[in-house]
Design brief:
Blueprint: E1 2-5, E2 9-13, E3 17-18, E4 24-25, E5 32-35, E6 42-45, E7 51-55, E8 63-73, E9 76-87
């Protein structure tokens, strides 16, 4: 599982597709990226689909979502996925509140 702070983003990139022997193969078209929960993890693909910016909506909740990329080569479907956990960034503020006033 990949962890990402709620104030960060990261580029996920396809390094290539290979056949069973490890030889490079071409894709039939641009890969398609998706998130299982865009309220937790957002995906913004590049124009050619070979990369994607993965981040957290602002403001957004903490949690886990699966990032998936789908493509095909010679009509064969290819799918890769990974879980991304959005975790809290470091503290930046301290909050407090007053209780109900009383007479001593």
């Amino acid at each position: 599982m990949f962890q990402l702070h709620d104030n960060e983003e990261v580029v996920a990139a396809i390094s290539g597709a290979v056949d069973a022997e490890g030889n490079p193969v071409s894709l039939d078209g641009p890969p398609v990226w998706s998130s299982s929960d865009s309220g937790i993890v957002t995906v913004t693909p590049s124009a050619d689909g070979m990369a994607c910016i993965v981040g957290s909506p602002t403001p957004g909740p903490l949690g886990i979502a699966t990032v998936k990329v789908e493509a095909s080569s010679n009509g064969v479907a290819l799918v890769a996925s990974a879980e991304v956990e959005i975790i809290a960034a470091g503290a930046v503020a301290l909050n407090f509140s007053f209780g109900t006033p009383t007479v001593p």
